[in-house]
Amino acid sequence: MIKKKLDRHVDLTTLDDDVQVSTILLPFCFDPGEEYETMVFGGKYDNYCWRHHTQEEAAAEHARVVAALQEGTNPDA
Questions:
Q1: Is residue 12 part of a domain?
Q2: What pTM was estimated for this model as a whole?
Q3: What is the residue range of 42's domain?
Q4: Closest by alpha carbon to 68, among 43, 51, 35?
Q5: DSSP state letters, 1-68
Q6: For the chain, how big is the Rg over CA atoms in Å?
Q7: Which residue, 13, 45, 6, 42, is CA-closest to 27?
Q8: How far apart are CA 59 and CA 48, in angstroms?
Q9: Is 42 left (phi over 0), alpha (psi -120 to 50) or beta?
């Protein structure tokens, strides 16, 4: 597992060669108040996405999604 942070990233975790979990501060909002997004890229849950109101919620959700994927469970459950 590789973790690194970029400009708008709250967190970025690479689980293996084809799966990443990214949590970012959105450059724009579709729904007022939802400023952060966690998204899975690659693997069985590719393009699963969650929106958050605060950076703290976003960081907690990122950790929850990463843990679920590491356990082999559906992160949307």
A1: yes
A2: 0.83
A3: 2-71
A4: 43
A5: -EE---SSEEEEEEEETTEEEEEEE-SS-SSTT--EEEEEESSTTTT-EEEESSHHHHHHHHHHHHHH
A6: 12
A7: 6
A8: 16
A9: left
In a domain, 77, yes or no: no
Q: Which two tokens stand for residue 47?
A: 């393009």
Q: DSSP letter for 56, please.
A: H
Q: How many domains does the chain have?
A: 1
Instruction: Determine, yes or no, domain membership for 14.
Output: yes
Strand partners, 77: none
Token couple for 54? 């605060």
Contacts of 75 (CB under 8 A, 6+ apart): 40, 45, 48, 64, 65, 68, 69
Looking up tokens 């970012």, which residue turns up? 24
pLDDT in tens, 6-49: 567 789 999 987 899 999 998 776 666 668 999 999 999 999 99
- Does residue 76 lie within any of the structural domains? no
